[in-house]
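Pasting as-is:
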Amino acid sequence: MNDSADAAIDAWFAGKPHSREIFTVLRELIDACGPARVTVASQISFGNARKFAWVSLYNVTGRNPEGTVQIMLAIDEEMAGDPVYRVTQVGRSRWNHLVVVHSLAEARAPELAVLIAAASRFGAK
């Protein structure tokens, strides 16, 4: 990771310490699979030969200023079941898996680590 991406991530999570903690766990899981390019825009994306993971916040409101962390994972097979909220087939061999992460415990779930590893392998192809 480079300093400009780290600075952009810091700015992206400014005032959102709980969401940042969850993101840190997700990033550690992604980093454990090997190096990935990080892009920060309206989402934080991770990629290798292709992008495979996108982290975003939804429902950021005055009552919920941190928003809720979600991660979208591109995988070459459907892997429905916990903790996946929704699976959408977007190509012949590509399914997007949306996982909503409310807590650090959910971020550390072994099932999420399996999904992230599968997405990282797909991203390396």
